[in-house]
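Structure request: DUF1772 domain-containing protein, Panagrolaimus davidi.
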Amino acid sequence: MFFGQLALVDASLFAGAAAVISHAEQPARLKMNDDPSLLIQFQESYSRAIQMQAPLAIIGGVFGLLQWLIYGGFFWIFGAFLIFANFPFTFAAIMPINKQLMAMSSKDANSETRNLLIRWGELHFVRTCLGLASTFCFLFASFL
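Returned structure:
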């Protein structure tokens, strides 16, 4: 059960971090009236968040997979699948927006920048949901 406990803790950390971004940081960022400042804040935040969230998604998925390989259980493999699903979703849906936003100069920020950030937030909420779903799968599996 050791790997399962680690998977649960890790998925919880991932989900919590994603939820803070979706529920607190993104809405606060969008309240900024100044588009250049909005972009600068996103660029600084994104650079730090990726260093935390990507490893958490990998580690949580690996621990869930190891728990499933050793002990079996549908919810372990399904939870691992959900947290790993962040990668293809991020690369396909979010990464093109990330690249646009990270390549922009604050001098070039405008209402389109804001629109991109709004779309980015909507897509990031999917990552929050994947993290929460993975956490609930691991939690449920812990009680079986």
